[in-house]
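$ ./design --mode recover --in tokens.txt
reading tokens...
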């Protein structure tokens, strides 16, 4: 049974790039460097090699979920032709995943921690 309050709390921590266990410490140093363990509780962030492949899917899904409806909305509301649309959404599909990179990893970590909190013990 999913506890909605716990799920909301962990998801909120993920969106704020915080440790899903303690919420105390940030999980990134800078833009692209994921810390190995939480500075607050010692939670190991990367369980194994390839652990964050799911984050790539999250990033891709978020990009597509914005770009495809965005294309149709602009086509319907503004009547923007194909070439400007391709330039706009092509650029978007390059920039957005770079910006969303940290959030996708953080959300993936949060979702994993929510569904399987007990398998990753601190060092
Ligand atoms: Zn922590």
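writing sequence...
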């Amino acid at each position: 049974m999913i506890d909605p309050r716990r799920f909301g709390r962990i998801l909120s921590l993920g969106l704020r790039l915080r440790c899903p266990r303690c919420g105390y410490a940030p999980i990134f140093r800078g833009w692209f460097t994921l810390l190995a363990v939480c500075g607050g509780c010692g939670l190991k962030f990367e369980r194994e090699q390839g652990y964050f492949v799911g984050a790539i899917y999250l990033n891709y899904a978020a990009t597509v979920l914005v770009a495809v409806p965005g294309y149709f909305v602009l086509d319907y509301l503004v009547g923007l032709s194909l070439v400007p649309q391709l330039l706009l959404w092509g650029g978007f599909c390059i920039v957005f995943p770079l910006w969303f990179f940290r959030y996708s990893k953080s959300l993936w970590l949060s979702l994993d921690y929510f569904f399987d909190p007990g398998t990753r013990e601190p060092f």
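exit 0
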